[in-house]
Write a sequence for this structure.
């Protein structure tokens, strides 16, 4: 089953022109700015070593993962299918249908990143597993103890 999400470049620059965010819901741009260093790329950190972090991302219908920043290589795999809308720091809004087993890989060079948010716009729970590699070219972002299992 093909991925209907607009192709995601590994590295996404943050737009500086406020017009890029004109179609975003109220308050979302401000959240993006506040979360520029948010390393919580899932809803719960289920395992962590000095080399990897393993995250679960569960979103109920209508729920949205706040803006978060990816700075090191990672991949995600869909556990339960559904529909989502993503907001990217370059101002883009993209929608996707995800299928069980779908997997996508990303890589970031020095000072590269992707800052985005993901919203469940479907009628079923979305469930992803994300594996983040901490030995990339950028230092890993800190995460609070409150997200650790």
């Amino acid at each position: 089953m093909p991925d209907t999400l607009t192709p995601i470049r590994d590295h996404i620059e943050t737009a500086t022109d406020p017009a890029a965010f004109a179609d975003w819901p109220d308050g979302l741009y401000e959240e993006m700015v506040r979360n520029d260093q948010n390393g919580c790329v899932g809803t719960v950190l289920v395992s962590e070593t000095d080399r990897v972090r393993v995250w679960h991302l569960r979103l109920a219908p209508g729920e949205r993962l706040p803006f978060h920043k990816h700075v090191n290589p990672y991949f995600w795999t869909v556990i339960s299918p559904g529909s989502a809308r993503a907001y990217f720091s370059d101002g883009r809004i993209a929608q996707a249908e995800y299928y069980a087993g779908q997997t996508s890989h990303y890589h970031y060079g020095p000072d590269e990143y992707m800052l985005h948010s993901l919203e469940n716009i479907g009628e079923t729970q979305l469930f992803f597993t994300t594996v983040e590699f901490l030995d990339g070219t950028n230092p890993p972002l800190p995460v609070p103890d409150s997200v650790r299992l």
In short: Residues 25-138 form a domain with the Jelly Rolls fold (CATH 2.60.120.10). The longest helix spans residues 28-34.
